[in-house]
Amino acid sequence: MGGLKIYAIIKTGGKQYRVNPGQTIDVERLDVAEGNTVELDKVLLIADGDQVTIGMPTVDGAKVVATSKGSGKGKKVIVFKYKPKVRYRKKTGHRQQYTRLVIDKIVRPGVAEAKPVKKTTRRKKEVTESGA
Fold this sequence. Notes:
Strand order of the largest sheet: 2-1-5-6
Mean pLDDT: 87
Low-confidence stretches: none
Structural class: mainly beta
């Protein structure tokens, strides 16, 4: 059982993706600049070894953090419409825009993230001579 890793199923752009940390995926175009991070909070399922959490419809408090590696266009798809006997032909093309994401981490609900500890300074109490 040593080979089991954490993975999640997320929904973005009307599609569902199975993602692992470190994986690179192409999703429908997101308005994120290259190098910025994005949090995908529509997590449908998280599996960590034998622990599986299924959302109804999403897992509350879970998110997937990813870094944008830029956007691009997919291959051209030719759309050809044709009706016989009426001389109707229409040829168009389409290139779908996408955003390339690298999955950084999967945050499970109820598991606290390691936040930097804020140092606090304590004030010393003043000692009064009359109260001593």
